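Aim 2, interim progress: modelling of the 2-acetamido-2-deoxy-beta-D-glucopyranose-bound target.
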Amino acid sequence: MWPPRRGCVLRWLGLRVCRRTTLLFALFWFGFWAFLNGLVFVHRTIFSDFCTNYKSKQVLQRVCEEYRQGVLTGDLCEDLCVTRQVQYKRCLYYENGKKVIEADWRGVPVVLKSKLENFSSYESFSLLEYQDAPELSPMDIVFYATLEIKNSLGLEVRNASVPRLWSQRLQERGRPYSRAELASLWSLLQQEEYTFFKVLQDLSRHVVKVVGSCGHFYAVEYLIAGHAWNQNLFSLEEISSLPGPESQTSPSSSSSSSSSSLSQGGWTDRDMVHRIALSFLEMVRHFENDFSHRLHLCDIKPENFAIRKDLTVVAIDVDMAFFEPKMQDILEQNCTSDEDCNFFDCISKCDMNKNKCGLKRINSNLQVICDKIFRHWFSPTLLGARAGLPLQVALQRAVLDCAETAGGEEAELSRAIHHRLLALLTQLLRDGPGQGEGGQGDGDGHSHTSLNF
Ligand SMILES: Nc1ncnc2c1ncn2[C@@H]1O[C@H](COP(=O)(O)OP(=O)(O)OP(=O)(O)O)[C@@H](O)[C@H]1O
Ligand SMILES: *[C@@H]1O[C@H](CO)[C@@H](O)[C@H](O)[C@H]1NC(C)=O
Ligand SMILES: *[C@@H]1O[C@H](CO)[C@@H](O)[C@H](O)[C@H]1NC(C)=O
Ligand SMILES: *[C@@H]1O[C@H](CO)[C@@H](O)[C@H](O)[C@H]1NC(C)=O
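Predicted structure of the complex, ligand included:
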């Protein structure tokens, strides 16, 4: 496997010396290998102890026990605990109490999530502590929920816009909320991620859908998560294995599925990458313009995004997603150099006179996505023989320009770069072997959805 080392070949006369270095090298290599394996083993036994099927089922069993005791509730509880229509599949992630479990709910794959494994670890709703507390009206709940959203998202929420989130529930019922319902709602609201998803639920296709909850666990749709080690970042094979409507664009293309390079609905892998890239562009445009505040993504990497079967890009990890007001709070720092003003992928400049970081982010979501995602897809190494085609060369150039232009300040320049990428990708899709006309994944995205906060 290793290329012959020049030293050995040239000094074949001094065979003994050479053998000794080889032996040493082999020993070193073996030692290194053993060390790495040991490390992985130790890591596994310490951490994945909690991500075993046994532990995960135990956690869900505890949820059900508390459901039976009337401590917590939710629209998923009956199926999870009584009719057993939620079937445990595997543990996806466990760290510092955060639990992520894959399951099947009535045949549909879902992901169950909670920031903390135990219900009792969440702060209880203080008004419930008093036995003789007056009954809470739905409006009071709205009020407290509003405060909680303001805390976690840094958004001023108008009273009127909160009921929308829980409105159906609030209107439908004549009776006030039970303790279990309030306690469950409260545990969910303490999870910033849940609040974020819930607030944007009907406003964005680029945010994961919450499909139900039981106690402190909430279920989201199962998606194909990105992985840096995957050649295409998203497992394109897995897309076709997902249940759901076939996302074919034209009936004619499905007949050509005999060719092995056409994986789904007559799309080639390359077509699919182009479609996913277009959806990334649409998401960038959407997060920039369609809410009352710009949404900044400060941790951009394949792992934090996923795709649906129709190749829409979805944000699944929003721990580092901030609306403009919160972004400014975060960037408001003392500084002596620009480095002090870097917050992961969100950076601003240091004002040397005031020793304060600028409140405005100087780079943009688009720049970081070009740098960390598009650059990988449209690099000459991954393209192979096609890298020399004129359109591909133009795209590579555009992606590099995009990655190197901060673009946070100059809206005009940013728009031009966005437009160039959009045009090239659309052109490539039109010319590509997949011939997928229409359905570019951004067709209906221009309806303005205002947050009204
Ligand atoms: N909706 C989903 N569909 C499929 N897989 C998912 C989904 N949500 C999360 N996952 C998988 O579970 C893993 C962990 O989930 P999540 O991203 O919420 O944790 P995390 O917040 O990334 O933890 P950290 O912030 O420490 O990185 C993800 O890397 C992803 O592989
Ligand atoms: C959760 O509860 C179980 C059982 O009550 C306990 O053994 C475990 O340590 C708790 N975990 C945390 C993180 O509090
Ligand atoms: C929201 O409603 C609460 C009572 O439910 C009230 O006290 C508060 O002033 C209202 N806030 C706004 C901004 O209207
Ligand atoms: C920033 O600097 C000011 C004065 O130079 C000081 O009063 C303040 O405490 C500092 N803030 C932080 C977060 O260090």
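The chain has three domains: 17-49, 53-222, 226-244+262-431. The radius of gyration is 26 Å.
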